[in-house]
Amino acid sequence: MKKNKILMMLLSLVVGFGLWTYVITQVDPAGEDTYYNIPVSYDGEGLLEERGLMLMPGGDTSVTLRLAGNRTDLIKLNPGNITVRADLSNISKAGEFPLTYSIYYPGDIPSGAITVQSRSPSMVKVMVSRRLSAEVPVKVDYEGSVPESFIADKENAILDYSQIRVTGPAEIIEKIDQAVIRVNLSDRTESFLENCRYVLCDAEGNPVDVELVTTNVAEVQLQVKIQRMKSIPLTLTVIDGGGATQQTSKIEITPNTIQVSGSDTALESLTELKLGEVDLADIPHSTNLHFSIVLPESVTNLTGVEEAEVKISFPDLSTRKFQVNEIQPVNVPEGLEANILTEQLSVTVRGPKKAVAAMDGSEIKVRVDFSGGTIGASSWKAEITVEGSDGVGAVGAYSVSAALQEPVPVEETESEE
């Protein structure tokens, strides 16, 4: 019984399919169908680009066709295998244009088997714009700031692309003024090298709709140096002399500190910066000196000051000049004698005002050391000492003229009888 039911069902299907085939092929061989949303494709876009033009959205992108033909052919059709094409090659300027279009069917449908009863729209509308390319600068927009003891060298940031090439409709390209990279510096304490996305903006920084715009790069590499900052004092090595000491002198360094930046390793050992050395014995009176500020190669001078001024004065000291007539030779080589040609030496001394005022000049001793000397006249360094006057010393360097020579024989005279 069950087998009979199955057989009856199969027989019904076969009979039904046969009747449907008969109707389609014999009873009603011709028919009509409507096909919706058939996409439109365009030929000649390359020619538009050569003419500085481009196809814009806003035109017709699909059509509806009412087609007639044999049903065996119609049932083979659908919106996906019907091709609608329009030709752009005759367009030579920007604007809106109506274009005729051609319809193509799959290859297994005989030529002329299908006729178009109606089409909507009858012509497709296209929008063509002027195509423009431009170079726009890359701008980095920093947000936040690094911690207080660090500095970000934003002005010397390195970009692998300083400009972006943008291409698209002229009315959009003309609005684009800059490519903006937004970077948050908050809590950053180390230099970084990153690939960053950018936003194409107008002159006011507002984003521009760039759906139809193409660019030469999608990301820009940004490198920013972040380093620790430190305040470094400027110092001077002072050698006491000439009746002056560092304590009795007034020494002012301008600037007395500078701000520097560098790696933690470079700054750890940099606790002060010595400008140079000053011997007070060589400075007879108040003076201004200048020293170049030279830092280690890995450290940056943030102040930009390249030279320090050192003012040296002696407000609590006085100077006085004495003429010294007695010059004592010492360490004259054996077999020679020294002939001091300088008869008088002008010596300037400096020290506490009361001590200098009480001097009469006898306290000043001038010695010339002839160690290693040879026969002949020359200038010799004079060593000045001040004895018996506490805190007083000679200022400046002194020399005398002297000749080393063999002793002159003493002639003997005959005594009279």
Describe the fold and architecture:
By secondary structure, the chain is mainly β. It folds into four domains: 92 residues, RNA Polymerase Alpha Subunit, Chain A, domain 2 (Beta Complex); 94 residues, YbbR-like domain (RNA Polymerase Alpha Subunit, Chain A, domain 2, Beta Complex); 86 residues, YbbR-like domain (RNA Polymerase Alpha Subunit, Chain A, domain 2, Beta Complex); 88 residues, RNA Polymerase Alpha Subunit, Chain A, domain 2. The chain is 12% helix and 48% strand. The strands form seven sheets. Strands 2, 5, 8, 11, 12, 14 and 15 form a seven-stranded mixed sheet that branches. Strands 6-4-1-3-7 form a five-stranded mixed sheet. Strands 9, 17, 19, 20 and 22 form a five-stranded mixed sheet that branches. Strand 28 and strand 29 form a beta hairpin. The longest helix has 26 residues.
Q: Give the helix tally.
A: 6
| Coarse morphology | rod-shaped
Overall tally of domains = 4
Task: Tell me, rounded to a whole number, the average pLDDT.
Answer: 91
Computed over alpha carbons, the radius of gyration is: 52 Å
Beginning-to-end CA distance, first to last residue: 194 Å
Portion in helices: 10-25%
CATH topology of the largest domain: RNA Polymerase Alpha Subunit, Chain A, domain 2
Q: Which sheet architecture does the biggest sheet show?
A: 7 strands, mixed
**Helix/strand structural class:** mainly beta
Portion of residues in beta strands equals: over 45%
Annotated CATH homologous superfamily of the largest domain: YbbR-like domain
Uncertain regions: pLDDT < 50 for 5+ in a row?
A: none
User: What is the CATH architecture term of the largest domain?
Assistant: Beta Complex
Q: Work out the number of β strands.
A: 31
In CATH, what is the class of the largest domain? Mainly Beta
